[in-house]
Design goal:
- By secondary structure, the protein is an alpha+beta fold.
- The chain has one domain.
- It contains four helices and eight strands; from the N terminus they run H-E-H-E-H-E-H-E-E-E-E-E.
- It has an eight-stranded antiparallel sheet with strand order 1-4-5-6-7-8-2-3.
- The longest helix has 15 residues, at about 1-15.
- The chain starts with a helix and ends in a 10-residue tail after the last strand.
Length: about 180
């Protein structure tokens, strides 16, 4: 599930860089529809290109059916920040692709997606699929050079059990790209 959370960081970095104009409100919309709504509402969308640092802090993990050693390892991550770096090129900043919004996500839709005036509130639901059902709720604030977000991820993997994970993500523009992005710190 950590991989899913990290995969969401890139789209959130794109959202974080949006201006505070036009608001967007979508309900029961595909990931692609949300990407299109953002593109239409913000034709002058400009991200701050360069190196972005995202710090992820795991606040809680509840996985009753998980093997004890895996649960212990996940609990060990509670309260510890992990840093991830990404590079947003000038071209990506000027014309973001739909991949920023996980457009290729299989069998997923937004129950709701609200973004405007520096605030985002969204819930994406995926499944059922080979890994079961999952949902991600996101709430936070954003500006062209930073964002702060809380996320609650819930996954029901059927016989393997369910898991709920809460985390906080803080991301900020930290300068020019170095070529060492996309590595955990």
């Amino acid at each position: 599930m950590t991989r899913t959370a990290v995969a969401i960081l890139i789209p959130l970095a794109a959202l974080a860089a949006c201006g505070k104009g036009n608001s967007i409100e979508e309900k029961n919309a595909s990931v692609g529809d949300v990407a299109e709504a953002v593109a239409k509402a913000r034709p002058d969308l400009k991200f701050k290109p360069g190196r972005w640092e995202s710090k992820v802090e795991f606040l809680s993990v509840d996985a009753p059916g998980m093997p004890p050693e895996v649960a212990k390892a996940m609990q060990g991550a509670i309260g510890k920040d992990k840093s991830y770096y990404s590079c947003l090129t000038k071209e990506q900043a000027e014309k973001p692709g739909a991949d920023f919004f996980n457009k290729g996500a299989q069998n997923c839709k937004y129950e709701h997606f609200t973004m405007g005036n520096g605030v985002i509130d969204a819930k994406m639901v995926c499944g059922p699929g080979p890994s079961g059902k999952a949902s991600v709720e996101m709430k936070g604030d954003y500006a062209p050079d930073h964002y702060s977000m809380t996320m609650a991820t819930r996954a029901d993997a059927g016989p393997q059990g369910s898991m709920t994970m809460h985390m906080k993500i803080d991301s900020k523009h930290v300068g020019q790209c170095t070529g060492n992005e996309s590595k955990a710190g």
